[in-house]
């Protein structure tokens, strides 16, 4: 059983917050990071391990950890939550599907159905949006929408030029936990997984600001961005642990 009070304190809340408030509190408090897979430590999805790492130890995590922790909290508050596995499209080659290595939640709360996701790295939803295709949703200056592409629902966002780009797509058929565990194992242990070979740490702020440290595009780069502008600085690998500690509040051991 999740210690709901401890989780709520971790995300700066108390009592019985609503879905949007809880989602935003989680996103803007718990960093996204792959420090464990990066140094060869497999990620456990056992509830007690998630609570220890992300709540008690005040660490961050990636999509499987983040969204499973949110799922536990939402269920403790009375919501019904289904899990979906998505293929990341952002940065991919059209026509070359990636494995289903992203976890998305469908939340039924007070009779409405919502698309929730606190784990899409540097650029996840600040608050849930209505489940399924529909209109544009503006969140602190960032814009999101869901469109249909064959059997898949595709979450899109806009670039700084206003063009829509695909973030990820998923078939809206709930999956059991064993499928999530299998995808997680691939993501955190496969020798060609970017979560094993590379580094990413990111955080989002209530005002819409984002920051990330990543080497997925080549050189290790620290980026800060808003919906209007972005700036990037190359970082020497030896300086990464202190930057992660000072800007993201995490103790980082990279080897």
| Shape-level CATH architecture | 2-Layer Sandwich
| Count of helical stretches | 8
Number of domains: 1
Strand order of the largest sheet: 5-4-3-2-9-8-7-6
Average pLDDT confidence is: 95
**Largest sheet properties:** 8 strands, antiparallel
Taken from the alpha-carbon principal axes, the silhouette is globular
Q: State the CATH topology.
A: Arylamine N-acetyltransferase fold
The strand count comes to 13
Strand content: 25-35%
Poorly predicted runs = none
- Based on helices, strands and strand pairing, what is the structural class? alpha+beta
Name the helix and strand elements from N-terminus to C-terminus, one letter apiece: HHEHHHEEEEEEEEHHEEEEH
Description:
This protein has helices at residues 4-10, 19-27, 35-38, 47-56, 63-76, 177-189, 194-197, 240-248; strands spanning 32-33, 80-88, 100-109, 112-116, 129-130, 137-139, 142-149, 152-158, 164-170, 200-204, 210-214, 221-225, 230-234. It has a single domain, classed as 2-Layer Sandwich (Arylamine N-acetyltransferase fold). The protein is an alpha+beta fold and 255 residues long. Strands 5-4-3-2-9-8-7-6 form an eight-stranded antiparallel β-sheet. Strands 1-10-11-12-13 form a five-stranded antiparallel β-sheet, covered by helices on one side. The longest helix is centred in the first third of the chain and has 14 residues, at 63-76. The mean pLDDT is 95.
């Amino acid at each position: 059983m999740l210690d709901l009070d401890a989780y709520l304190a971790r995300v700066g809340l108390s009592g019985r917050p609503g879905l949007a408030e809880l989602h935003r509190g989680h996103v803007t408090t718990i960093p996204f990071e792959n420090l464990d897979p990066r140094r060869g430590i497999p990620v456990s999805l056992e509830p007690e391990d998630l609570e220890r790492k992300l709540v008690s130890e005040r660490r961050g995590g990636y999509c499987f950890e983040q969204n499973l922790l949110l799922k536990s909290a939402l269920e403790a508050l009375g919501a019904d939550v289904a899990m979906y596995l998505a293929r990341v499209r952002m940065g991919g080659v059209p026509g070359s599907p990636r494995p289903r290595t992203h976890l998305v939640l469908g939340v039924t709360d007070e009779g409405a159905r919502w698309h929730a996701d606190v784990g899409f790295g540097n650029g996840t939803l600040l608050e849930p949006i209505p489940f399924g295709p529909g209109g544009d949703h503006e969140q602190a200056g960032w814009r999101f929408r869901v469109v249909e592409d064959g059997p898949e629902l595709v979450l899109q966002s806009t670039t700084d030029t206003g063009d829509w780009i695909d973030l990820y797509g998923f078939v809206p058929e709930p999956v059991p936990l064993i499928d999530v565990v299998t995808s997680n194992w691939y993501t955190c242990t496969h020798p060609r997984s970017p979560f094993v070979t590379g580094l990413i740490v990111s955080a989002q702020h209530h005002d819409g600001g984002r920051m990330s440290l990543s080497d997925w595009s080549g050189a290790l780069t620290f980026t800060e961005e808003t919906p209007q502008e972005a700036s990037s600085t190359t970082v020497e690998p030896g300086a990464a642990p202190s930057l992660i500690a000072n800007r993201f509040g995490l103790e980082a051991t990279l080897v």
